């Protein structure tokens, strides 16, 4: 069986705790997951320990925020299996601080329009290491302004196309900085939900920058988009992963862990990727030595 390699806990923008997610995965028959909280690695060690208790393999991961230098788009890059996770902590702290600053401005904006206070919003973000749009919407639900997280009110407030949006763009690290940090940490870089980005040249540019893989199977991609991503990854010899982007109550649509996942073949390739790269590098070195 494969694995759901894109799951968020309460530590970032999910609604469930680490143990709850692992229990849910076990009950769903999903034996491999990755905890990929946004700009936060706090749950990976605990997740691994709890996963062993339940018989669920938890792959260390994190979803890193970035700004594409060319298009200005916010891009999310998944990092899996870092050898030196501590080398990503500075980047996580920088991005988390940028998220918090932007969220504070958005809280002020929303409090001017609706009967909601910063304290109520912060209460809804209890347990998280940061504050996200979902927490603001949760607070608006608590105050009776709306009856769902992803209601029309959400798109009014958080859609770039809305004239009434309250969006404040965080000053994230650049894509190049994020990819360099992943290389330094000995991790594997994968572009998250590629079907959501408006810039058609983004994937090609990231391939040139050395990204290792694409998230091919994801709720945002329909069959045609999934097939196209599969073909693109195949053409460029990239790793392929899949995940539900699970956030519990904060899911954009009804789905459970394992609804989208990485097939067994691709999961095996991901887990063996670094060992394979080391073998190829050793073989190349030996070939150069022979030629010399």
Provide an overview of this structure:
Helix content is 43%, strand content 13%. It has a domain at 4-64 and 71-85 and 185-291: TIM Barrel (Alpha-Beta Barrel), CATH 3.20.20. The relative contact order is 0.16. A seven-stranded mixed sheet has the order 1-2-3-4-5-6-7. Helix 1 runs parallel beside helix 2 and helix 4 crosses helix 5 (133-142). Strand 6 (213-217), helix 9 (223-235) and strand 7 form a beta-alpha-beta unit. The chain is of the alpha/beta class and 292 residues long. It has helices at residues 18-27, 44-54, 89-113, 118-124, 133-142, 152-158, 175-184, 202-208, 223-235, 264-271, 273-291, and strands at 4-7, 32-35, 57-67, 74-80, 188-191, 213-217, 239-242. The chain is globular, with a radius of gyration of 20 Å. The longest helix is centred in the middle third of the chain and has 25 residues, at 89-113.
